[in-house]
Amino acid sequence: METLEQLHKQIRSLSFFDVQVFVYLGKYLNSKAVAAELEVLPSKVSRSLSAMRSVFNDKLFIRRQYNFEPSPLAVQLYPMMESVKSNLDRMVPVVMGNQGKEQRERQKVNLAVPATLSNGLTSYLLEAARQNGEEIDISLRIWSGSLNSDTNSDAIDLGVYFSAVPVKGAESEFIAYSKSTCVVAAKSHPLWQQFDRFEEVIFDYPFVVTECASFNDAQDPMEIFAKLNGRDLNIRARVNTLDELVSMLGHQDSFSFTGGRRTIEFLKANECLNVRLVPSQTRRRIHQGIGNGSREPGYYLTYKDRQTCPQWLLEALRCYIHDSLEVEDLLT
């Protein structure tokens, strides 16, 4: 049985987003409608509901055949949650007016991420800042160099890296495992006609490496995989931006591996390119060769000084990474 103090602490941990999810679930009784209202993926709504269920030790909204049904506790809590949301909504014009009179100095944050997370990230974080009533100056760079030397210098305040294991010497916070890998090539590439023999034929074509700090700064997993199969990998180029990747793939016989929701959206918008999921068995075998058994590589957050990183910014990055893992609906 939780003490009153423990329950107070857990309830105080709820975010304004959780309050919004609760109120809109009570209003619409449908998670997709809530996601549309808040302009987020349904998976983010599900994570919020799961967290609130844990806090209140109650199902709150029970899934039925077509919609949710509120539990008795949810019915009791709804007026209070709605009041909290209304009061916070009313703060916005007050705060905006105050900011107009007294502009606060914006904090500058040097942020480094893999190319696969870069597309649309700045606008996402600026919107998160606006929703939190914050001002921030984000300097975004693609992270493709030495992770330790960058984090030990003034070049980076905050970074996200992709790796099979946490990097030694860097203060790291695990965010999520990668769920999938995609292969991208020109629509005219012969690989698509041979996809049922994917693992046999991939070494017949030049490969473009998209550089990621830690993950492949020394050697790309495909180089190891080729050696394990007694083949040579023909690396045509190493790139560190999506624009460079597109230019190398558009009308040539090269292919590459990539991932991330915004990256897939960016690549699919190019009429010359095709994107498909790498077969799961091939993906597992590639991972077995990178010194970590068959465990998935994952995304890690690292910082020079955590105390100087705004909590809302860290949470926004976590949410962005989780959302970026949802790609299957783009490839069906």
Automatic annotation (TrEMBL):
Q: Give an example GO molecular function.
A: DNA binding
Q: Which UniProt keywords apply?
A: DNA-binding, Transcription, Transcription regulation
One example of a Gene Ontology biological process annotation: regulation of DNA-templated transcription
Indicate yes or no for the key word DNA-binding: yes
Superkingdom to which the source organism belongs: Bacteria
> Membrane-spanning regions, if any?
none
Where's the LysR substrate-binding domain?
103-252
> Where does this protein have coiled-coil stretches?
none
- SUPFAM superfamilies named among the record's database cross-references: Periplasmic binding protein-like II, Winged helix' DNA-binding domain
Q: Which InterPro entries match?
A: LysR-type_TF, LysR_subst-bd, WH-like_DNA-bd_sf, WH_DNA-bd_sf
The entry's family comment says: Belongs to the LysR transcriptional regulatory family.
PANTHER family assigned to the protein according to its UniProt record, in alphabetical order: HTH-TYPE TRANSCRIPTIONAL REGULATOR LEUO-RELATED, HTH-TYPE TRANSCRIPTIONAL REGULATOR YIDZ
Q: What is this protein called?
A: DNA-binding transcriptional regulator, LysR family
Taxonomic classification: Bacteria, Pseudomonadati, Pseudomonadota, Gammaproteobacteria, Alteromonadales
